[in-house]
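To whoever is covering the structure queue this week,

Two jobs came back overnight. Logging them here so there's a record in the thread.

Job A:
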Amino acid sequence: MSDSDKKLELMDYSYINKVADCLKLMAHPVRIRMIEILSKGLYSVNEIARLCEVPPNQACEHLRLLKNHDLLDSERDGRTVYYKIKSPQLTGLLSCIMNNCPL
């Protein structure tokens, strides 16, 4: 049987589009740093902003995008909002990126 005769099981294009959207969302240095930080635990917006070296309003926008794509979750304690990773696959994606991209 030749390679052209084999039936390939390929991803559905609707799924491929979702994967591509996720990768586009993650293709930002600040968001990659945020996932790295949040892979270590729960952090407030101000802590994340400080560790990412961006203003809190910029951090909020990045966090909002990640949360709107169901990658993060948040909880409020008074006036402070804390973020955590919602999607367990996200840390796997970060590990894959770190292990496969040359330094």
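Job B:
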Amino acid sequence: MKRNNLKAALIGKDGRSSALERSLLESPRLSGPVLRFTEWKGEPARHNILRRASEERPDFVIVGPEEPLAAGIVDALQKIGIACVGPTQSLARLESSKAFTRELLSRNQIPGNPQFKSFRSTKGIAEYLRELVEYVIKPDGLTGGKGVKISGAHLFSTDEAVRYSEELFQNGHPAVVIEEKLDGEEFSLQSFCDGTAVIDMVVVQDHKRALEDDTGPNTGGMGSYSCADHRLPFLLPQHVQAASAINAAMPKALLKETGHKYKGILYGGFMATRDGIRLLEYNARFGDPETMNVLPLLETDFVDICEAMIEEKLATTPIHFQNKATVCKYLVPQGYPENPIKGERIDLSRLPKESGNLRVYPAAVEERAGQLYMTGSRALALVGIGDTLAEAEKTAEQAASAVQGPVFHRRDIGTAELIEKRIQHMKRLAMVE
């Protein structure tokens, strides 16, 4: 018999964390509010997490962002007997070390790697750049999504690329990964993992560019969408199957090489190319904004799933998602991401009330005297849910447009026009000889 009156804790303070907390609170198995840790950087914050966890003894902790995973918070919590949904520091290298992940796939003959080489000094970099012609340079380590540079977009000569690599080494990155530049359509496949079993969630497409029609600087993600058939209009079933097979192979490879079981979220960022599915990167936690697409569709008790990951019972835990479409649109402050305004109020008085078709997730905001003020990053996620993508997009757009203040959002996310461009892009790739 399952235990009730459980206590859950959560590390995080973004839109993803709001979605995680909401899903936890929807479970009848929790005895009260979720214990939230919104600070985790530095020893004082780390000691506070460990002290309060030791005092309150939550049955499990979900780790939202990547930084505490890379810093070993799971190892520290496990030492005091607290179970975690999230990998240990060694296993979190799947995200914190791009060289580790590329080399892991290569050694274990897991498909999905582009042509790549890892460098631990600048020796040989210039020659390899000339061999690839078009390339991507990735620093080894966490950079908040801001360290990747691409030839033709950020780097315009071999000398410039070598200088950037030197700069990365000087800034403390132990390695630089240089990969072939790929052409295709990106998608995210997140999976629950208990160390052996891997259960996929709904496929999602994120939008990194700040402005409509995929222009402007890269961001943490301006929004995302998923479809009622849990696939995407530009993907074939075999594309999803190939990505799923890569996710399924990862815990086996990690167990073989480290001797430890990966328990938490496997989040693969993939690209469908003319040569098949390629892995762009792995994240060792839920995605933001993709979490806001998948969790509202979850029909299974989220606490049951967390427990199954920890206790290695995923294979015998039925997990179901509704066959509905979702569209998430992030409201962000004017100037985001490069020079966002801070401290400005947003007015939600015209925002439609939440319903089965609309979810509102606060992110980088703080409440003062009953009003919401932006703190400088993505402020509010509006999620529309519908039987069709058009219905979900309309709900999300109406909600996003109703918020007043110095904010903007991408109106084109989830629209038929933008998705048709994705479909045509894939068709052109297929016709290339």
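Note for Job B: The chain has three domains: 8-86, 115-180, 184-419.

Please reply-all if you pick these up so we don't duplicate work.
Q.
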